[in-house]
Amino acid sequence: MSKSFEELISKANQKTLKKVSVSNAQDEPVLQAVKAAKEQNIATAILVGDEAKIREIAASIDMDLTDFEIINEPDTEAAALKAVELVHNGKADILLKGLLETKTFLKSVLNKEVGLRTGKMLSHVCVFEIEGINRLLFFTDVAFNTYPTLADKVNIINNAVEVAHACGIECPKVAPLCAVETVNPKMQPTVDADNLTKMYEGGDFKGCQIYGPLSMDLAIDPEAAVHKGVTNPVAGHADILLFPNIDAGNITYKILVRTAKVKIGNVLVGTSAPVVLTSRSDDFETKLNSIALATVIAGSITD
């Protein structure tokens, strides 16, 4: 079981070398991440975008492009579509967002002809390594789905469980997070959490444990769980944190990123291949961690 990104990168090293299709690769942090991924034997890449700018940036970071395929496409939307098409046609295993807006990128991912649709619901998983916590935490969904219904939450959990399995967690513990740990009919997230728990108890979920509603402290802090008398195995030991909506998830995500000592990796799943969906403002380490995460997921499918 991977408990850190160092262990996750080591796990990625053990997989068959994957190829990343980079959409609009003319971005320094993206090229730094791709360079590091190749040097660490995590993945190689096809660079799609403005070739002149790609070569200019590569030269500035001392990146040897000899072993990288470059597809020159200066137009942002055309480059995005070409990068997706490479994955769709099996010429690459992973899609990586480069220097373009998320809405343009996702439009290509969802393209009816060459996109990565599978019929499954798409959802975002952010993996956190947080100083002081002895395991990776899987946040979902903090960036893609806005106000998921109960049915949506079932799909979001199943997607996150697949990611956790790929990272070596055989039976991840899932905590549907709420503001309180009791069911309140006036607070829909608590009702959903209770229903998800009952569905799990009825055998509707496989390969995981689910218990909620749980407040954040009861989900990740064993002492808080003991203090409040919550004895379920998930309490205090959750691996997957299911947020009730994008507001709660994204605010928590940004607070941690800006105030705590963390490492993160982001991936969009439910697609036919892992999609690395990071912010343009993310540093190269986050992008590298995300590539490693996507490599492990891709390897669990194909290796």
UniProtKB/TrEMBL annotation:
| Alphabetized GO MF terms | phosphate butyryltransferase activity
Q: Which UniProt keywords apply?
A: Acyltransferase, Transferase
EC numbers: 2.3.1.19
Where does the record place the Phosphate acetyl/butaryl transferase domain?
Answer: 5-76, 79-294
Q: Report the Gene3D superfamilies cross-referenced here.
A: Isopropylmalate Dehydrogenase
Q: Does the keyword Magnesium apply?
A: no
**Is Transcription given among the entry's keywords?**
no
GO process terms (BP): butyrate metabolic process
Family note: Belongs to the phosphate acetyltransferase and butyryltransferase family.
Protein name as catalogued: Phosphate butyryltransferase
